[in-house]
Amino acid sequence: MLALLVVMAIGVAGWLFNDWEPRLLPIRVIEVKGELHHYSSQLLQKTLTARLRGGLLTVDLLELKAAAEDLSWVGHASLRRVWPDRLEVEVEEYRPLARWNQDSLVTATGIVFKKGTGIVPEGLAQLEAEEPRAPEVVARYQEWREALRHIGHAITVLSVDSRGDWQVELAKGTRLRLGTDTVEERFARFIASAPQLEAAGHPLRVDLRYRNGFAVKWAPNVEPAVPTPNKDRPMQSGNRG
Protein backbone atom coordinates (compact mmCIF):
# COMPACT_ATOMS: atom_id res chain seq x y z
CA MET A 1 0.00 0.00 0.00
CA LEU A 2 2.84 2.35 0.89
CA ALA A 3 4.60 1.59 -2.38
CA LEU A 4 1.42 2.40 -4.31
CA LEU A 5 1.11 5.72 -2.48
CA VAL A 6 4.73 6.56 -3.30
CA VAL A 7 4.19 5.80 -6.98
CA MET A 8 1.03 7.92 -7.01
CA ALA A 9 2.83 10.76 -5.26
CA ILE A 10 5.66 10.66 -7.82
CA GLY A 11 3.11 10.66 -10.64
CA VAL A 12 1.27 13.65 -9.21
CA ALA A 13 4.55 15.50 -8.65
CA GLY A 14 5.58 14.80 -12.24
CA TRP A 15 2.24 16.04 -13.54
CA LEU A 16 2.49 19.20 -11.46
CA PHE A 17 6.06 19.78 -12.64
CA ASN A 18 5.14 19.40 -16.30
CA ASP A 19 2.15 21.65 -15.83
CA TRP A 20 3.96 24.41 -13.93
CA GLU A 21 7.46 24.24 -15.37
CA PRO A 22 6.59 26.06 -18.64
CA ARG A 23 5.13 28.88 -16.54
CA LEU A 24 8.04 29.06 -14.13
CA LEU A 25 10.79 28.65 -16.73
CA PRO A 26 9.32 29.79 -20.07
CA ILE A 27 11.46 30.03 -23.18
CA ARG A 28 11.30 33.69 -24.19
CA VAL A 29 14.09 33.87 -26.78
CA ILE A 30 15.14 31.59 -29.66
CA GLU A 31 18.54 32.78 -30.89
CA VAL A 32 19.69 31.56 -34.30
CA LYS A 33 23.39 31.41 -35.10
CA GLY A 34 25.17 30.55 -38.33
CA GLU A 35 25.18 32.06 -41.83
CA LEU A 36 21.76 32.01 -43.43
CA HIS A 37 21.95 32.94 -47.08
CA HIS A 38 18.55 32.17 -48.58
CA TYR A 39 16.17 32.27 -45.66
CA SER A 40 15.94 34.56 -42.68
CA SER A 41 16.47 33.55 -39.09
CA GLN A 42 12.92 34.76 -38.44
CA LEU A 43 11.54 31.91 -40.54
CA LEU A 44 13.49 29.36 -38.54
CA GLN A 45 12.40 30.98 -35.29
CA LYS A 46 8.78 30.84 -36.42
CA THR A 47 9.12 27.15 -37.32
CA LEU A 48 10.61 26.25 -33.94
CA THR A 49 8.17 28.39 -31.98
CA ALA A 50 5.27 26.52 -33.56
CA ARG A 51 6.76 23.22 -32.31
CA LEU A 52 7.74 24.50 -28.89
CA ARG A 53 6.35 22.41 -26.02
CA GLY A 54 7.37 22.84 -22.38
CA GLY A 55 9.76 25.19 -20.61
CA LEU A 56 13.52 25.43 -20.56
CA LEU A 57 13.97 22.13 -18.71
CA THR A 58 11.28 20.02 -20.37
CA VAL A 59 11.47 21.18 -24.01
CA ASP A 60 12.30 18.31 -26.37
CA LEU A 61 15.51 19.39 -28.13
CA LEU A 62 15.52 16.35 -30.42
CA GLU A 63 12.05 17.21 -31.70
CA LEU A 64 13.09 20.80 -32.39
CA LYS A 65 16.29 19.64 -34.09
CA ALA A 66 14.21 17.42 -36.40
CA ALA A 67 11.84 20.34 -37.12
CA ALA A 68 14.77 22.59 -38.07
CA GLU A 69 16.39 19.96 -40.29
CA ASP A 70 13.07 19.31 -42.04
CA LEU A 71 13.53 22.70 -43.69
CA SER A 72 14.94 21.92 -47.12
CA TRP A 73 17.88 24.34 -46.86
CA VAL A 74 19.08 23.31 -43.40
CA GLY A 75 21.88 20.76 -43.52
CA HIS A 76 22.47 20.43 -39.79
CA ALA A 77 21.07 22.04 -36.65
CA SER A 78 22.12 21.83 -33.01
CA LEU A 79 20.28 23.29 -30.02
CA ARG A 80 21.22 24.01 -26.42
CA ARG A 81 19.53 25.51 -23.39
CA VAL A 82 20.88 28.83 -22.08
CA TRP A 83 19.78 29.92 -18.62
CA PRO A 84 17.39 31.40 -17.75
CA ASP A 85 15.03 31.64 -20.75
CA ARG A 86 16.84 31.11 -24.05
CA LEU A 87 17.31 28.44 -26.69
CA GLU A 88 20.40 28.74 -28.86
CA VAL A 89 20.15 27.21 -32.35
CA GLU A 90 23.25 26.71 -34.50
CA VAL A 91 22.51 26.12 -38.19
CA GLU A 92 24.62 24.91 -41.08
CA GLU A 93 22.91 25.77 -44.33
CA TYR A 94 23.28 23.91 -47.60
CA ARG A 95 25.00 26.06 -50.21
CA PRO A 96 23.89 25.26 -53.75
CA LEU A 97 26.53 24.63 -56.39
CA ALA A 98 24.06 24.05 -59.21
CA ARG A 99 20.45 23.31 -60.03
CA TRP A 100 19.53 19.63 -60.00
CA ASN A 101 16.90 18.23 -62.36
CA GLN A 102 13.58 20.06 -62.29
CA ASP A 103 13.00 21.23 -58.73
CA SER A 104 16.13 20.69 -56.65
CA LEU A 105 19.58 22.03 -55.93
CA VAL A 106 22.85 20.24 -55.25
CA THR A 107 25.85 21.08 -53.08
CA ALA A 108 29.54 20.83 -53.95
CA THR A 109 29.65 17.46 -52.19
CA GLY A 110 26.72 16.01 -54.12
CA ILE A 111 23.92 16.48 -51.58
CA VAL A 112 20.60 17.04 -53.35
CA PHE A 113 17.96 19.13 -51.60
CA LYS A 114 14.68 20.80 -52.53
CA LYS A 115 14.89 24.52 -53.22
CA GLY A 116 11.64 25.21 -51.38
CA THR A 117 10.44 28.80 -51.57
CA GLY A 118 13.83 30.39 -51.12
CA ILE A 119 15.68 32.65 -53.52
CA VAL A 120 17.98 30.66 -55.79
CA PRO A 121 21.23 32.41 -56.81
CA GLU A 122 21.32 33.47 -60.44
CA GLY A 123 23.69 31.91 -62.93
CA LEU A 124 23.72 28.36 -61.56
CA ALA A 125 24.33 25.60 -64.09
CA GLN A 126 21.75 22.84 -64.59
CA LEU A 127 22.84 19.29 -63.72
CA GLU A 128 20.61 16.41 -64.82
CA ALA A 129 21.01 12.80 -63.74
CA GLU A 130 19.60 10.14 -61.47
CA GLU A 131 20.10 11.17 -57.85
CA PRO A 132 22.51 8.32 -56.87
CA ARG A 133 24.96 9.75 -59.42
CA ALA A 134 24.97 13.21 -57.84
CA PRO A 135 28.49 13.01 -56.28
CA GLU A 136 29.96 11.78 -59.58
CA VAL A 137 28.17 14.41 -61.67
CA VAL A 138 29.10 17.23 -59.29
CA ALA A 139 32.77 16.21 -59.24
CA ARG A 140 32.89 16.03 -63.02
CA TYR A 141 31.08 19.34 -63.36
CA GLN A 142 33.59 21.12 -61.15
CA GLU A 143 36.55 19.61 -62.99
CA TRP A 144 35.17 20.40 -66.44
CA ARG A 145 34.02 23.87 -65.43
CA GLU A 146 37.58 24.83 -64.55
CA ALA A 147 39.01 23.38 -67.75
CA LEU A 148 36.44 25.25 -69.86
CA ARG A 149 36.93 28.50 -67.97
CA HIS A 150 40.56 28.59 -69.11
CA ILE A 151 39.46 28.62 -72.76
CA GLY A 152 36.61 31.10 -72.30
CA HIS A 153 33.66 28.70 -72.04
CA ALA A 154 31.07 28.01 -69.35
CA ILE A 155 28.71 25.10 -68.76
CA THR A 156 24.98 25.81 -68.75
CA VAL A 157 23.77 22.17 -68.72
CA LEU A 158 25.58 18.94 -67.87
CA SER A 159 23.56 15.75 -68.16
CA VAL A 160 23.97 11.99 -68.06
CA ASP A 161 21.03 9.71 -68.80
CA SER A 162 20.19 6.26 -67.46
CA ARG A 163 22.42 4.65 -70.14
CA GLY A 164 25.41 6.72 -69.01
CA ASP A 165 25.38 9.00 -72.07
CA TRP A 166 27.03 12.34 -71.22
CA GLN A 167 26.21 15.67 -72.84
CA VAL A 168 27.35 19.23 -72.16
CA GLU A 169 25.71 22.47 -73.27
CA LEU A 170 27.94 25.54 -73.29
CA ALA A 171 26.95 29.15 -72.77
CA LYS A 172 28.03 30.05 -76.31
CA GLY A 173 25.48 27.64 -77.75
CA THR A 174 27.64 24.58 -78.44
CA ARG A 175 26.49 21.10 -77.42
CA LEU A 176 29.06 18.38 -76.77
CA ARG A 177 28.13 14.73 -77.24
CA LEU A 178 30.52 12.61 -75.19
CA GLY A 179 28.79 9.23 -75.22
CA THR A 180 29.22 6.53 -72.60
CA ASP A 181 32.89 5.52 -72.85
CA THR A 182 36.20 7.31 -72.27
CA VAL A 183 34.34 10.58 -71.68
CA GLU A 184 37.31 12.22 -69.96
CA GLU A 185 39.49 11.53 -72.99
CA ARG A 186 36.81 12.86 -75.33
CA PHE A 187 36.32 15.98 -73.26
CA ALA A 188 40.08 16.61 -73.29
CA ARG A 189 40.00 16.24 -77.08
CA PHE A 190 37.46 19.08 -77.26
CA ILE A 191 39.52 21.29 -74.97
CA ALA A 192 42.56 20.78 -77.19
CA SER A 193 40.59 21.44 -80.39
CA ALA A 194 38.40 24.34 -79.23
CA PRO A 195 40.66 27.12 -80.60
CA GLN A 196 40.71 25.44 -84.04
CA LEU A 197 36.94 25.05 -84.00
CA GLU A 198 36.29 28.65 -83.06
CA ALA A 199 38.69 29.85 -85.73
CA ALA A 200 36.70 27.83 -88.27
CA GLY A 201 33.24 29.14 -87.34
CA HIS A 202 30.46 28.67 -84.81
CA PRO A 203 29.96 25.00 -83.93
CA LEU A 204 26.45 24.11 -82.78
CA ARG A 205 27.19 20.48 -82.02
CA VAL A 206 30.44 18.63 -81.54
CA ASP A 207 30.03 14.88 -81.56
CA LEU A 208 33.06 13.36 -79.86
CA ARG A 209 31.83 9.78 -79.93
CA TYR A 210 34.62 8.76 -82.30
CA ARG A 211 37.81 6.96 -81.39
CA ASN A 212 40.17 9.41 -83.03
CA GLY A 213 38.14 12.46 -84.01
CA PHE A 214 34.81 14.23 -83.90
CA ALA A 215 32.03 15.53 -86.11
CA VAL A 216 30.86 19.13 -86.19
CA LYS A 217 27.54 20.71 -87.07
CA TRP A 218 28.06 24.38 -87.83
CA ALA A 219 25.66 27.26 -87.28
CA PRO A 220 23.63 28.04 -90.43
CA ASN A 221 24.84 30.78 -92.74
CA VAL A 222 28.30 30.62 -91.26
CA GLU A 223 30.99 29.43 -93.59
CA PRO A 224 34.06 27.91 -91.92
CA ALA A 225 36.95 30.36 -91.99
CA VAL A 226 39.44 27.57 -92.68
CA PRO A 227 39.02 24.41 -94.75
CA THR A 228 37.18 21.73 -92.75
CA PRO A 229 35.35 18.54 -93.65
CA ASN A 230 31.64 18.71 -94.42
CA LYS A 231 29.40 19.41 -91.46
CA ASP A 232 28.48 16.38 -89.41
CA ARG A 233 31.58 14.60 -90.69
CA PRO A 234 34.55 13.63 -88.50
CA MET A 235 37.32 16.23 -88.51
CA GLN A 236 39.73 13.35 -88.04
CA SER A 237 39.43 9.82 -89.26
CA GLY A 238 38.00 7.30 -86.85
CA ASN A 239 35.02 5.14 -86.02
CA ARG A 240 32.40 6.25 -83.55
CA GLY A 241 32.36 4.28 -80.35
Detailed description of the structure:
It comes from Chromatium okenii. It is found in: Cell inner membrane; Membrane. GO terms for molecular function: phosphatidylinositol-4,5-bisphosphate phospholipase C activity. Residues 222-241 are annotated as: Disordered. This protein is an alpha/beta fold and 241 residues long. It folds into 2 domains: 2-93, Ubiquitin-like (UB roll) (Roll), CATH 3.10.20; 98-218, Cell division protein FtsQ/DivIB (Rossmann fold). Helices cover 32% and strands 24% of the residues. A 9-stranded mixed sheet has the order 6-5-4-7-8-9-10-11-12, covered by helices on one side. The protein has a 3-stranded mixed sheet with strand order 1-3-2, with helices on one face. 20% of the residues are buried.
Features:
241 residues, alpha/beta, Ubiquitin-like (UB roll), 2 domains, 9-stranded mixed beta sheet, 3-stranded mixed beta sheet, 5 helices, disordered N terminus, Cell division protein FtsQ, POTRA, membrane, transmembrane helix
